[in-house]
Design goal:
11 strands; 311 residues; 26% strand; Ribosomal Protein S5, domain 2; alpha+beta; four-stranded antiparallel β-sheet; single chain; 2 domains; Alpha-Beta Plaits; 10 helices; seven-stranded mixed β-sheet; 36% helix
């Protein structure tokens, strides 16, 4: 057995416009890195966290990566010690699954160093344990599933956990603009309506079905028509400065559709080619700069691999 391993786990885009808590996909960059070492001292020790200036706890029971590792180690009856370093390569509260990436990286790393006793599907519940820390004890699996499984996922159910990967067009590109703002997921859930009109629910169900069918059938017109959120986006977009202007600018230069990534403030857009995706990014950034806001821009195909060993 190796004594040390280094793993990268990617960011993820979830909700994907109309699929609140049930749709998500992984992207190539950004992501988190975890270095896991096997030691002779029992217990799980987080020795270092970089990238978030002391904002994340070193206590393994209060950290998404640590709590996920605890649950997996107990399940595997692993009685040696584990030391981990967490290197955050994306901001907290970005809407790109930062906490999920750390949780996924940790359980994936332990599973790899032990020669894969579990499949990715079997690792999901343990990564999800860490997400409970950020969701008030009621986890949503879209970020964790997309990050761990790679590709585009449907979370049919959380209890019991049921996740399905679907095929997507190979030339589908995603542009993401991350304004330098932080939005807390639990806060954005509190502002959502407790009741919705049946007519809005029917529209949303139709768009979810249409988007899934469009992705599987490589039907870009159907994908474009289905990227509409009539329930969540109208409320959460209020918290993102310039959202409507950014969305309109992206669509004007050729984006298939544009919406909020996760709970925001990141905004994603789908495009049919890399050149269009780059034009969309330039248009998004221009609007953001006009508001005197800084931001990070990412362009990626859908990441089919998920986490990977990098050292």
């Amino acid at each position: 057995m190796k004594k040390e391993i280094k793993v990268f786990a990617p960011a993820s885009v979830t909700n994907v416009s109309c699929g609140f808590d049930v749709l998500g996909f992984a992207i190539d960059w950004p992501g988190d890195e975890v270095i896991l070492k096997i030691t002779d001292t029992p217990g799980i020790n987080i020795s270092k966290i970089t990238g978030e200036d002391g904002r994340l706890p070193l206590d393994s029971k209060k950290n998404t990566a640590g709590l996920s590792l605890i649950s997996l180690a107990e399940h595997l009856r692993f009685n040696k010690g584990i030391e981990i370093e967490i290197h955050k390569k994306m901001a907290l509260g970005s809407g790109l699954g930062s906490s999920a990436a750390s949780a996924v990286a940790s359980v994936f790393a332990l599973n790899e160093i032990l020669d894969r006793p579990l499949t990715k599907n079997e690792l999901l519940p343990f990564a999800l344990e860490g997400e409970k820390l950020t969701c008030g004890g009621i986890p949503h699996a879209d970020n964790v599933a997309a990050c761990l499984m790679g590709g585009f996922v449907i979370v049919r159910s959380v209890d019991p956990l049921d996740v399905i990967n679907i095929d997507t067009p190979k030339d589908l590109y995603c542009t993401i603009i991350h304004p330098h703002l932080e939005i807390n997921t639990s806060d954005t859930r509190k502002i959502l309506r407790k009741q919705i009109l049946l007519s809005d629910a029917v529209k949303q169900w139709g768009n979810v079905a249409g988007l899934v069918a469009g992705l599987i059938n490589k039907d870009y017109n159907l994908i474009s028509r289905s990227l509409q959120d009539v329930i969540i986006e109208p409320i959460r977009s209020i918290l993102i400065p310039g959202f409507n202007e950014i969305k309109n600018a992206a669509i004007k230069v050729g984006a298939l559709g544009c919406s909020i990534s996760g709970s925001g403030p990141s905004i994603f857009a789908f495009s049919k080619t890399n050149s269009v995706a780059e034009n969309v990014g330039a248009a998004m950034k221009e609007v953001l700069e006009s508001l005197e806001l800084n931001g990070d821009l990412y362009i990626s195909k859908i990441n089919q691999e998920g986490p990977k060993v990098i050292g």
